[in-house]
Design a protein that fits this description.
mainly alpha; about 85% helix
């Protein structure tokens, strides 16, 4: 018996309805994925406002508490000590529990630490509060990487990570003017309390927006199961793990050596006012925002499995322009050189994280990121104290301090040349 016209029409209608449902589901998934990365971006912007606020606030804080240069360096470094120590734990937790619960908790913890920073009455209390802030923020790099692997295909990961990483540049740019304005018009205490309050609201929003792990791409990717011992041992035995950690260690000395002491340099040596310094300091991170997005596109299109070349280029160019900045007489020219160096330092940072996301096993991205970042953040911890000690020993000779920073950038380039030109998943697994 031949099917009736009604049956053909009914079948056609069913197919159309299924296609509509499939399209709606895909559209909803795309929108949710974009909302997630947008929310993570906003959280990281606020996180970097919290992270860098102390670098500017330390100027009025040191006057109120009567701090020496060494003590200022120790307070700034308290954040990075906790940041380094918590990285590995955070990376492990996000691999085990998923990004939703761990990331929202991390934002809440660092925000509480920021609120307390504005209420302390001693240098010791401030150092402790900054350590709490560092412990919360330590989880975000690994958590953000895992969130991307949970919600994005591998071909889109570099661009997604570049959007997230660009939040750092936006945080720096906004921080330069927002933090200096809050301190100038109100106080450094109110500045910390306001930032912390915003972060607590974001923590709640993040938990509500992110999907449970059972609904993510990772839940559908069922691979061979290995024991926790094998998984951790594989990361520790992999030489690529230690080389990437070394690259990022010295990169952090360069980056945070500049971020921690440049505000004092501009004010004390170049004679800039707080507001003038804040306005000029928006320029480098604004260009850095563009550089992050550009580097994400370059890594997907031209430097796939060749990240070492972008790291070598970034470190070499950074070293040259930091040297030029340190010897520039003109303030606008010095900031122009600083902007260029910042762009290429960002190229190193995004290359490191994309290498981990693309070339380590998916079930270990969080742990690998945590381990590498934990070791690398020791450089962030040591950098403010190192530069502070150099300044104290040389009667505040910033020229020598900048030479130390340039030397570390050269070391990054040297280590990067030893990385494999192509470190595919197969090579990583064999090394493990």
């Amino acid at each position: 018996m031949e099917p009736s016209t009604y049956e053909f029409h009914r079948d056609d209608t069913n197919i159309k309805n299924q296609n509509k449902k499939g399209t709606a589901k895909m559209t909803s998934r795309i929108k949710r994925r974009h909302v997630i990365i947008g929310m993570l971006f906003v959280c990281w912007v606020v996180g970097f406002l919290d992270k860098t606020a102390i670098n500017i606030a330390i100027i009025p804080i040191s006057e109120e508490f009567g701090l020496t240069l060494d003590h200022q360096g120790m307070i700034i470094s308290a954040f990075f000590l906790a940041y380094s120590m918590t990285q590995l734990i955070g990376g492990y937790l996000v691999d085990r529990l998923g990004s939703r619960r761990v990331l929202s908790s991390a934002v809440a913890v660092w925000s509480l630490g920021t609120v307390v920073s504005g209420a302390v009455t001693s240098a010791v209390g401030l150092a402790a509060a900054r350590a709490v802030t560092g412990a919360g923020e330590a989880i975000f790099p690994a958590g953000g990487s895992v969130a991307i692997t949970e919600n994005f295909e591998k071909t889109q990961m570099a661009r997604a990570k570049s959007v997230l990483q660009s939040g750092a540049s936006v945080g720096f740019a906004l921080g330069s003017i927002v933090i200096t304005s809050l301190i100038a018009f109100y106080s450094w205490r109110l500045m910390f309390i306001a930032l912390g309050a915003v972060g607590l609201v974001l923590a709640i929003m993040l938990y509500c927006i992110m999907p449970p792990r059972s609904e993510t791409l990772v839940a559908k990717d069922v691979g061979a199961k290995i024991s926790e011992k094998q998984r951790i041992a594989g990361l520790l035995k992999n030489t690529l793990t230690w080389k990437i950690a070394s690259v990022y260690f010295f990169t952090n000395i360069v980056f945070w050596g500049l971020q921690s002491w440049l505000p004092s340099y501009w004010v004390k040596v170049k004679g800039m006012s707080m507001m003038e310094m804040g306005a000029y300091s928006m320029i480098p991170p604004t260009l850095g925002f563009i550089s992050f997005l550009t580097c994400g596109w370059l890594l997907d299109r031209f430097f796939h499995q060749k990240e070492k070349y972008l790291i070598c280029i970034g470190s070499a160019v950074s070293a040259v322009f930091i040297y030029l900045m340190a010897n520039a007489e003109s303030i606008p020219l010095a900031f122009a050189y600083l902007s260029v160096s910042n762009v290429f330092l960002n190229a190193i940072s995004i290359s490191v994280f994309v290498s981990i996301m693309k070339h380590f096993p998916q079930n270990s991205v969080g742990t690998a990121t945590g381990l590498i970042n934990s070791l690398a953040q020791l450089g962030s911890f040591a950098s403010p104290m190192l530069i502070g000690a150099v300044l104290s020993a040389t009667d505040q000779n910033y020229g020598i301090a900048f030479s130390v920073i340039v030397g570390c950038a050269v070391i990054v380039c040297g280590i990067a040349t030893t990385l494999p030109a192509i470190h595919s998943k197969k090579i990583v697994e064999q090394a493990a």
